[in-house]
Amino acid sequence: MSAPLRVLIVDDERLARERLKDLLAEAGDMQLVGECRNGNEAIAAIDAERPDLVLLDVQMPGPDGFGVLRALPPESPPAVIFVTAHRDFAVQAFEANALDYLLKPFDRERFRQSLARARDRRKALASPLDTELLARLEALTRRPPHEPERYVTRLVARVGWRMRFLQVEDIDYLTAEGNYVSVQVGKQSHLTRETLSALEAKLDPKQFLRAHRSFIVRLDRIEEVEPLPPGEYVFVLRDGTRLTSGRSYRAQVQRALELPT
């Protein structure tokens, strides 16, 4: 049997935490590693416990749920299921690569469906592709040798036990998930077994911009740019997604977008 999923509960309401604990106890492969009442406790607990899954409220004292996510390092983040009574944050939650969005009140079956997503995610991360097959598939993503460009035109991603080709022209942005990368294509995200730095070297810099240590964005998806005082920029994409660049990437953002220095 595989090790249980280590779960952290974050909710400022005691009764909500108790119900989540009762529901987790009904699943035989979940291990509760802690519970938190506010955002500051959550950030500290995630850093200390390194849970596989966080059941995260949105509105609570201190940093809210999205503030908790922003405070976490991009390396090996836990899976997150938002559990909230507020329906207005669903789009923002999925933009933050949340695994699911549970709207209170929910029933047992809906909760089981969320846990099933967490199990599927771990299977996808823990089950490497056949090495020879992956090498052949990756070779297919490159241009023919007679063409001068060395950049890929397709990426290989995991979809359960299957493999899917993602056309580079369809990609909106890519975000780091430890030794994996989440590739956003429209409303869907796919995991590919590479680091963000490795993919950066494979993507055409005329089409893609590394603007943060945790994300790469496709240039023609950027609709608006909002400068921030510390030297950062907020990118507003065509679909409304907002991504904030890192300060150390200021110069290359300005070059790529031809912004004033």
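^ that was protein a. below is b, sequence first then the tokens
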Amino acid sequence: MDKNFLTPAETVRTIMENGKRVASQPLSRTVVLSLLAGFYIAFGAELATVVSAGTADKLGQGIARLLAGSVFSLGLMLVVICGAELFTGNSLLTKTALLGEITWGKLLENWAVVLLGNFVGSLFFAWLMYRSNLWQAPLIAEQAIAIATAKTQLPFDVALVRGILCNWLVCLAVFMATAARDIPGKMLACFGPIMAFVASGFEHSIANMYFIPTGLLLAREFPGTDPSLTWSNFFIGNLLPVTLGNIIGGVVFVAFAYWFIHLRGGKVDP
């Protein structure tokens, strides 16, 4: 009887093969898939904003974060099951580069294209949500602005560490989803780690490409918004350290760790 999951060694081998395919696919395909990932993560972020609006006052901060993380996991489910290129998940391509199956230049090229595509997709989705007027529902705009403001106020080192912890979990979610061989298994693999990182308050660069621009767009409708909510604080104060942290978390604690265990020396464990 066939297993309904892959072993860790088999999962590493599958991720390595996927890395070779992703790195060799046409640029146009990578661009479209990265745009889709930006949309999908933004769907989860938007839903988390709506669900958490006013929830903490009634149910407590912990429950509000749990609910937000639970619905935010939709984003990675869409990425994994429907197919898309997510910058944070593509940290796992490092395994393929470490084995010499793709060049480091190809890896960096993929990261640059996917990061830009994720950004454009997230930003466009933020604009769509702003134009939808759904933020006019009670407390939703205030929640969106509060989320964005809190993120732009993080010290550089704090944002960096939260980025590391976040993508450690995100890449583990991708690892487990790759191991799962059916859709319910992939959904469950995405749910646990993603719920955990959101509930914990960790920082995800692609999610922040939706959260913070949405807050910035809405702030124009609400005079008196905290002055720390600016585009420069978004790019320099949050996106830069969080992106660096995401790279460290995914590359060191997942990609490198499992390369060391299963692929070191150029041989793949059976």
